[in-house]
């Protein structure tokens, strides 16, 4: 049940038993993510005042220059989950390999693994534009009581038991699903509490916003170029509006509320696109579908892709159902 202005803590307790594998473990996990979100929010908010802007001086496994806040957010989420001993493994955009978490008596009793993009949109940190965090939760498939294995992380997105994001925006929000719709909670920073502000979020079936880095236009496949031209054509309810923040979380959040499509196609410069299947596309695809939207690589449902490696990239088209279907048509008919 969703009651507007319920706190996230109340909501978690009230809905704990409706979750099909309920043992309280998932609730504890969401609680830990909520706590880490508040700590990261605090750091992001004061970023302009203390020396945490700019590059950290390291390059991550993705080949990107890590920002100080990338590293900080990564450490905060990992430490919060590790200290509470509520997951058996973590994989992160900012870590080369997955992390196996032992319980204090070393018998690995926890059944969930978490995959995170600790700080999404990190190119926006230094210019005071919204950034986010994305998380994804699976039940392990190897036996409980043994160390986690790579296969526990390389599950198709349809196996997710929970996914969500935090957007550090004009307000800070946590938006998540456990497979029973999508709910959004807004942080009241004065008292540090998230309140249910957006119950049962839904993607409008049709939208009028398209979000893509058009600077890469020349490198896009013909079908994507054709779709962009279609969006710009004066016909029916078009031309559409173009909006691109460069933070997937923020672009997705806006499109879910207003109706729109987010695209990160492959290009002649990036054969598989840029976005990471495990930390970005799968969780957003799960949220999109739970909100009545759609997510595709142009040919197939994102949630049906079988991952082959932790840091795998895929082309990503996500948002209002009819818009995603339309871009698929253009791609497949080009
Ligand atoms: P991250 O900051 O986690 O590395 O992700 C950045 C992603 C995504 O948030 C964003 O939509 C996209 O990269 C922007 O890429 P371009 O700058 O190539 O448009
Ligand atoms: Mn990055
Ligand atoms: Mn990201
Ligand atoms: Mn990131």
UniProtKB/TrEMBL annotation:
It is found in: Cytoplasm. It catalyses: beta-D-fructose 1,6-bisphosphate + H2O = beta-D-fructose 6-phosphate + phosphate. Residues 204-331 form the Fructose-1-6-bisphosphatase class 1 C-terminal domain. Pathway: Carbohydrate biosynthesis; Calvin cycle. Its cofactor is Mg(2+). GO terms for molecular function: fructose 1,6-bisphosphate 1-phosphatase activity; magnesium ion binding. Substrate binds at residues 120-123, 213, 244, 274. One of its GO terms (cellular component) is cytosol. The keyword Ribosomal protein does not apply. Residues 7-198 form the Fructose-1-6-bisphosphatase class I N-terminal domain. Mg(2+) 1 binds at residues 93, 117, 119. SUPFAM superfamilies: Carbohydrate phosphatase. Belongs to the FBPase class 1 family. NCBIfam families: PRK09293.1-1, PRK09293.1-3. This is Fructose-1,6-bisphosphatase class 1. The gene is fbp.
């Amino acid at each position: 049940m969703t009651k507007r202005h319920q706190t996230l803590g109340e909501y978690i307790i009230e809905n704990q038993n409706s979750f099909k594998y309920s043992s309280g473990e998932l609730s504890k996990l969401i609680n830990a993510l909520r706590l880490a979100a508040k700590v990261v929010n605090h750091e992001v908010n004061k970023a302009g005042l203390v020396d945490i802007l700019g590059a950290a001086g390291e390059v991550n496994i993705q080949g990107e220059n890590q920002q100080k806040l990338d590293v900080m957010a990564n450490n905060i989420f990992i430490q919060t989950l590790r200290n509470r001993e509520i997951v058996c493994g973590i994989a992160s955009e900012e870590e080369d390999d997955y992390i196996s978490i032992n319980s204090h008596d070393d018998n690995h009793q926890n059944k969930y693994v978490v995959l995170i993009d600790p700080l999404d949109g990190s190119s926006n940190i230094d210019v005071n534009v919204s950034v986010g965090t994305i998380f994804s939760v699976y039940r392990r498939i190897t036996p409980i009581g043994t160390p986690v294995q790579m296969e526990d992380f390389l599950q198709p997105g349809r196996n997710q038991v929970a996914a969500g994001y935090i957007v550090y925006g004009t307000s800070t929000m946590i938006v998540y699903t456990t497979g029973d719709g999508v709910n959004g909670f807004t942080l009241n920073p004065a008292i540090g509490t998230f309140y249910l502000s957006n119950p049962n979020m839904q993607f409008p079936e049709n939208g009028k916003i398209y979000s893509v880095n058009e600077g890469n236009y020349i490198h896009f496949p013909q079908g994507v170029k054709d779709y962009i031209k279609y969006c710009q054509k004066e016909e029916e309810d078009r031309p559409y509006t173009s909006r691109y923040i460069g933070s997937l979380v923020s672009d997705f959040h806006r499109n879910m509320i207003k109706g729109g499509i987010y695209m990160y196609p492959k290009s002649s410069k990036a054969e598989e696109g840029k976005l990471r299947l495990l930390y970005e596309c799968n969780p957003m695809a799960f949220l999109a579908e739970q909100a009545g939207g759609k997510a595709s690589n142009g040919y197939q449902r994102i949630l049906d892709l079988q991952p082959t490696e932790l840091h795998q990239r895929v082309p990503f088209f996500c948002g209002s159902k009819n818009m995603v279907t339309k871009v698929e048509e253009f791609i497949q008919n080009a």
